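Assemble and predict.
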Amino acid sequence: MNDQQRITRLQEARLDSDSWKEWYRLTPLERMRESMKLWRFYLEAGGSLDPEPDSQSPFDAVMPHGTPPAYRRSGLRVVRRSGV
Amino acid sequence: MVRHLLIGGQACVLYGAAEFSRDCDLIILADDTNLQNLNAALADLRADCIAVPEFKAEYLHRGHAVHFRCQHPDVAGLRIDIMSKLRGCDPFEQLWQRRTTIEDSENNAIYEVVAIEDLVCAKKTQRDKDWPMIRRLVEAHYDLNQDAPNEAMVLFWLRESRTSSMLAELVHRFPDSVAGVDFERPWLKSLDVTNLGQIEQLLRAEEDAQRQADRGYWQPLKEELERLRMNRPRPT
């Protein structure tokens, strides 16, 4: 294997999915706008801005974790569960 | 005007990683004038401190984060976490000198963002979720700049890449630059670029050491937080 082939193989191994390549190649503001769309959807779907419990965070013990997550809103209920 | 820099999830997104963050993390200059300006800005946002410690310079200087939640209708519920120092990173003034400024003309906004090398440094924590983020940040930077890099970029990639195949590629492409990161990664100079498993092991050992250092850094601060939490006045 020559040098160029080796580099090409390493590059292929590194960029393991097209979606990451597409994301990297957006401009910073395009990424920010995409992120804001997700943020708006999350809030419209009833998502909470409370911190998630995170046992590895130094702040976990002092942060409020009061609001239940969206899927526990009163209008939503689980109608089927997986086996695990 | 509050002198601040965006860190955390939004900064990661701007630099090419992808993190869904529920808050806004800022590092600020904790001098009297800036803290007064920050106080005024927080009042405009109707932001309340929601956890210990309370908003005092002494806590910021010691390395604590102060946590706020906004009540202004435009940003209702938004949490803002504020710090003035980050483990292993330079003081604010130096971070400010290296910052990235991004102008959003559509929203008439300016984002002052901590430099990518400082963001990577700040992400070397004890938390699992921060390490894949570092990997993506460095990969994104390499993807953007690999065709025309300068020496500072090459050294940044060699020093901070957490992707075994990318690191092998870098050592192969830039063998003369490896000596420039001998202090941080002495093992690079004898790296077998065909042995990705070994590179993974070396990266894991590096990560474990940083996680341990972060736990040691936070231990006394966590103890202080616990004391503050136990002693805070209860609502009557």
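DSSP finds three helices and no strands in chain A.
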